[in-house]
Amino acid sequence: MARTKVSKSITEINEKIRRGDAVVVTAEEMIEVVKSRGEVEAAKEVDIVTTGTFGAMCSSGAWLNFGHSDPPIKMQRVWLNDVEAYTGVAAVDAYIGAAQLSETRGFDYGGGHVIEDLIRGKEIALRAIAYGTDCYPRRELQTVITKHEINQAVLCNPRNAYQRYEAATNSGNETIYTYMGTLLPNYGNVTYSGSGCLSPLHNDPNYETIGIGTRIFLGGTQGYIFWEGTQHAPTNAMGTLMTVGNLKEMDPRYIRGATVEKYGTTLYVGLGIPIPIINEAVAKATGVSDEEIKTTVVDYGVPRRDRPVIREVTYSELKSGKVEIHGKEVPVSPLSSIKRAREIANVLKRWIEEGKFYLTQPVSRLSTTQVFKPMKQISAVPFVRDIMTRKVTTARPEDPIDVAARIFAEKGFDHLPIVDARGKLVGIVTSWDIAVAVGKGKKKLSEVLTSKVITARGDEPVDAVARKLEKHGISGVPVVNSLGGLEGILTSEDIAKLLGRRKK
Amino acid sequence: MTRKVLLRYSTKKATEPILASVIKETGILPNILYAEVGTKGGEILLAIDASDAEIDGAIELFKKKGVEVKEVKRAIELDEDSCFDCGACISLCPTSALYMDKDGSVKLDDNKCIYCGLCVPSCPVHALKLSKFW
Question: Chain A contacts of B125, Cβ < 8 Å?
Answer without folding.
Answer: 256-259
